[in-house]
Amino acid sequence: MRLRVKRLLKNGEYLVSLETVSFGWAERWRIRKFRAPKVDLSADGLGIHSLSDMGLCIKGRSAEEAERMTDRVTQNIRDTLTELSARKKSFIRDRALEVYARRKKLVLGLACAIAIVVAVLFTGGNSTEHAGIQDELSTGQTPSAPATDVPTAAGEEVIYEAPPAVASGVMANYQDECRDDFTRHTGARSRSAGRGSGSTGSAEPDFTITAIPEALARYTQWGSSASAPLGQGDGRHFKLILTSLGGFEGPVTLGVLSSSPLLDLRLYPAQIDKLPGSSTLLISFPPESVPQMCPDITIVARGRTSDGTLITHEKKLVLAIRQKSSYLGSTWHVSPYGSDQSGDGGWGSPFRTIQRAIDSATSGDTVLVERGLYKENISLYGKDGLVVASHFMCDPDESTVRSTIIQGKDDGWVVTIGRSENVTLCGFTVQNGRGRNGPHGGGIYSFNSSPTIFNNVVIGNQNHSGHGAGIFCYESEPTILWNHITENSNYDGHGAGIYCYRSDPDIQHNVISGNYSSGGGSAIHLLEPNSAKIVRNTIHSDSGSAAVVLYSSGVTGDFRVVNNTISGNRGDAIRFFGGPWYFENNIITNNEGYGLFTLQGVGYLSHNDVWGNGRGDQTLDYYGLSEDLIANSGNVSVDPRFGNPPHGNFHLCLSSPCIDTGDPNIPVPFAGGQRIDMGAFEYTHPDAISGDMNRDGFIDYGDINYLVRFLSGTVPSPNPLEIADVNCDEEIDLRDLGRLYRFLYYYGEKPCTDFKPKDRLTER
User: Fold this and answer.
1) Torsion of the alpha carbons at 412, 413, 418 and 423, rounded to the nearest 10
2) Which H or E run contains 459?
3) CA triplet 128, 129, 130: central angle to 5 degrees?
4) Which residue has the higher pLDDT, 42 or 415?
């Protein structure tokens, strides 16, 4: 056996993902013969898992704890394989006995059939045939207690009627049906128009099946009463009521055929004398029979029509019996292939909806959601410490976020977080929130809570007459990190991206773009915060009167707007009122309105680049601020020289004047330069890459633009010059431009790989 183990330290927790990769030939033989046996990891809170297809995500508070859990899981797998080896001999013996029993039944059946044919040929009497059939069906059917001995609950009865085509589907998809929590009944159902006691034509006898419990496919949990007599609450039986219909004369003889020796079938009565009438079938099973699938139980009815013809009518049903999982873990699993009815939230038996898992979870648990589309509106109310996350938590792949979608099914918020402390929402695409007929509705709503919302895509949510189409926070302390908030719309309100009222938000490292708000704050709108941190966000291409609106009527508070890039918005970049607001190391450029606008606001500016704002030739960098405030404290007004703004690349180029010009009192992030930079991104790409003309660390359209301008003599040469020779012919000309264009847009060859960067980092 070989396991793949991956370890990851994320947000202070140690995550270990473990999956089976391969087995030896002997191990594969055992697994196949014993039909994918299970490994019981309930003691570690991990549920029961299939040995042949295992994938786990173990979370520990320390590296030692995660390692201990990994060792215990590995040991349990080895123990299971050892047990299979011990069962190998008994398995072969049982198979031999089973083959012998089948052959014996076959011979006996053929003998009985020959005897019946001979008897019919010599007797030729219908009455004798009828009596023989009745005796045959009644043999071995011990009458049970009357139906009233079995407790029933109101509302638990349901009539099953299924088309004949279902039978072949159940038999052909045996393994798939074992995962479903429902029963399919099959049988031919044909009725004549003249059925009834006065009918003159021939008609088949028919009946319906009423089941208690409703679903014959059932998880059953054994308790202290497992040895109690049948019908006294031990949960080890099913009750079927067989109701005969019209279409025949005289009594109807009933019988049950089953190939499973583990089921105890009791029918009372075996013959319905008065029509219409009913019989009760009790199906009981011992605990050792779980799990099992019985696809070939056949209920047989024989009776005569009004013209005296004896007709046999059969219906098949599928009975699936599975023991309820003892899963008591703290991680609740959700899958688009799970079931809210039969699932228990364990890894091998996930729920279908996220809300079902949230309702089952308690404070401090984790709801782990597989990739898929979930059309629902979920609510987290009073769930302190609950983590609701996609598999991005175990494997930080951006495609996981894009393919794990919570799509609003009804009007209102897609995700509601209420009166909960330390709730985490991670790794989802949240879309289709709608507030059409009132102020409520959108992507994520938090009230009286302290959620952490990170690594999500909040897209395509709408609010027609309220605020905060993307994220709305009321009297909360949200931490909003590393999200992409885009294409959300407020048609008659404020704060299309993020709207916070009387809250203390911490908004960092988000990309907020393409949102529309008829009022202010198309990206961010803060109203009466007690404190606020807006740090290293990229805000671009938003539409409204202003991208960011900050309003505080008080005169105290910690309000900081630090290292953000706000560019290319159709309105003012920032409007602020009240305060005091602290603006440090921001790049505010190329917005169609004012860069910084205030009316009676208190602001402190330090090391910001505010440049190129306004429409046409009109410069609108500042409004309402004193010249002294702007001229001092390292503020500049220069082209920041981004990599490729039209395509969302706001990284700084090597020649940017915003590198190493931020506030020297603010610490430099990891991998930064000697001094902090302005804007949302530190310049961390000093090594030269062939084709990266503007040296922003990316090869994109910005490099094509730079090479065009270099060839026309309007910009300095790339540094070093060799990175512009993308076809390695020792010349820089239009052929290099053509190769770079084909690489980006037509899957052409990569830029030349002969160029070797210098041994030391290129100087800035």
Assistant:
1) 160
2) strand 457-459
3) 90
4) 415
